[in-house]
Predict the 3D structure of the following.
Amino acid sequence: MQPTRVNGDGGIPPDFAFLCRHGVTSGALAAAGQWARHWEVPVADAILALQLIPEDAFYRALAQELDIAYLPDDARIIGKAHDCDSLDEALAARTLPLAPNAHGLARAVAPDGAAVEMLLRHRHTFASNGVALVSPSRLSALARHRFRQEIADTAAGLTTQEPDLSYRSGPARWQMAALRAVFAAAAVWAFFAPLALLYFSMLLAGTVFLAMSFLRLFCLMLRPPLPPGGYARALSDAELPVYTVIVPLFRETRVVPQLLHALTAIDYPPAKLDIRLVLEADDRLTRAAIETCDPPSYIRIVTVPEGRPRTKPRALNVALAGARGSLVVVYDAEDIPDPQQLRKAAELFDAFPDVACLQARIVIDNWADGFIASMFTMEYAALFDAVNPGLAAADMPLLLGGTSNHLRAEVLRDIGGWDAWNVTEDADLGIRLARAGQRVMDLPSITREEAPFRWRAWFGQRARWMKGWMQVCVTHSRNPLQTWRDLGPARFVAASTLTFGTVLGALCMPFFAAVSAWALVTSWGRTTSWFHAATLGFSLVVMVCGTLALVLPVVVGLARRGRLRLLWLLPFSPLYFLMLTIAAWWGLRDLVIDPSHWRKTGHGLSRRRRYVPFTDSR
């Protein structure tokens, strides 16, 4: 898109002509002035966003032009000070006090774009000794180092703001007591009447499975709402808000080039992008891979201080501190988002002021990598192209995907960010948004993603997911009456079905199906009591509805995604469900042994990722 020439002849911004002495051409400066007017941002921001000069070189040249010292490499900041008591305050003030030094400097200042223009126009107002200029990136690094302990302490988020909504403390005492009581009663019942216990258990499990089936089928009948007046209004570059993009990385050297290419391909004013690549402190290889690619200035590395738990949501909380954008999106390392996705999200947020979160559609693009990748593809097609859009249209809670969820930063901070102690922070965040009365919508824009296609990688990822969903169940059932009041009856039932039903289905569905099939075959026409007959009839209804709820969303999702050729794999779904059950029981084991352990999924292994067109599905 070319800038619109407005209010001026496109000449060199006079206050920035000094940059010509530092290698920036007059034509480039003139273009920066035009882009600044087009984006409605300060000229300094446009110069840096267009990469006309490196950020550090720009601020060194600015210091030279203003005859002010540039912060020496050996300068240190004061460990404690009264003027800035937190990272956010320091970044907002754009200044830090310096420890006594041989240079006689007392304070480091990193002016933003608007302040740079003011300084260049009113130089006399900054003729103060003891002040050193520094780039915003370096000031941010200094501030994060100074407040590293505070960041490490608060990165757990909910544990200080809403401890009851964090998994950190594990199950409540009453939950453990109730669980023991249920097991004791079941053991006694099994001793005296094992067959009755079996049928009763089938009725309970069947009720949950039937609710899940109805919910999935109900979603197929709903379509996303439109804003008043039709589709969302296209926003001009000047109207677009600042957008923070957070990408947590850990041992991801294989995908760094692909990731940086995908991020730089995003169609959004670079002066309004705040992209944060979040790295663990000891992940030197990924850091080196990023620095080798020399990313643009709006892509910055954020280091996570050492501490526990070592999880993705903790890294996200660290990145959220000091984020510039009013809107935030999370991407995974292997993601290739639609270049237009941020614009579409900003336009939907503008059209629906009451919406706090948008979930984009995740599409698997390596379905040719074998059975697991193909089944994963069908699973995601059903979820993101059929079920989730229906849930959003009905204003029901969503278990968000771990990537491509767009959020209002203010709302995200208000609810405490992500739960660092939950290994499926996305699902937990979806329930907490619903409990806070916030609305979630479907975003008809895709993000291409690589699915694990080897058994070990898939098993580890799915075991972690199941453990996390169990953590969601525990957290939000600690005080069921409060959860009921927060959600209301319909949303409470939907949330319970989504969370508890997912866990129960993964743990027990193959057993339920096998027992039901055996009972129907061996007892059909030979029922011994009304209870026996009711159980058999109910099992038949559950199996029929469950089959429809499995098949129809997959068919709809694959049809909307143009991949109906994968339907031949549907008869192999029982095998895939058996794999899910094994992973679920392993996840339960992990929940007991090491609840906050994060099973890392490797990326960049596929050589069969296929192009998927970035088209809307409505």
About this structure: Residues 489-523 form the longest helix (35 residues). Residues 1-9 have pLDDT under 50 and may be disordered. DSSP finds 22 helices and twelve strands in the chain.
